[in-house]
Design a protein that fits this description.
- The chain is α/β, with parallel strands linked by helices and about 180 residues long.
- The protein has one domain.
- The protein is about 25% helix and about 20% strand.
- The protein has a seven-stranded mixed β-sheet with strand order 3-1-2-4-5-6-7.
- α2 runs parallel beside α4.
- Bound molecules: iron/sulfur cluster.
- Iron/sulfur cluster binds next to loops.
Length: about 180
């Protein structure tokens, strides 16, 4: 995997104070994407073991409440197995901290695709707490979206992942 940016102290990509990893590479190429420099899977920087260890350590502060993954596309076939490994490590060390994922895949895509990468995607989402789903659609841009702090078009949702699995239907995050 390659990555674009790490934020050690982030207050804009999830609730509360957190850290964020912007991965490199996205196949969706949404018109109006806020982060087009992350589209190229060969751009950015190599994700090494050393960087991963440092990233995990960044979460080891009492005021860090959540870890956010965005991009680029954290759940792309090229990225998802690394993201799964990072989340497993984080959950083991800091089970109380929330995991947020921002993805162009929809909840329905993630639940119903059947390739081996799709299974990894499902496992990754299954370990997370909040999923901001769906591609940004410029013709559905909505500044009155009730979750406008986190998403920009009306098709996108910010989903409470664990409640949604438990209830077998989408429950939006109260965030
Ligand atoms: S899915 Fe996200 S990163 Fe990818 S093109 Fe769309 S808005 Fe940009």
């Amino acid at each position: 995997m390659r990555y674009s940016l790490i934020r050690k102290m982030d207050i804009s990509n999830g609730q509360g104070v957190g850290i964020s990893l912007f991965v490199q590479g996205c196949h969706f190429h949404c018109q109006g994407c806020f982060n087009q420099e992350t589209w190229d899977f060969d751009g950015g920087y190599e994700w090494t073991q050393e960087i991963e260890d440092k990233f995990i350590e960044l979460a080891n502060k009492p005021y860090i409440q959540r870890i956010s993954f965005l991009g680029g596309e954290p759940l792309a076939d090229e990225n998802v197995s690394t993201i799964l490994r990072i989340i497993k490590r984080l959950k083991l060390l800091y089970p109380e901290k929330k995991i947020w994922i921002f993805t162009g895949y929809t909840w329905e895509n993630i639940l119903h695709q059947t390739s081996s990468s799709a299974l990894t995607r499902l496992m990754t989402v299954g370990l997370s707490d909040v999923l901001a789903d769906g591609q940004f659609e410029i013709d559905k841009q909505d500044i009155n979206h009730k979750q406008v702090l986190w998403v920009g078009s009306s098709n996108q949702r910010v989903i409470d992942v664990q409640k949604s699995f438990k209830n077998n239907k989408i429950i939006l995050c109260n965030c």
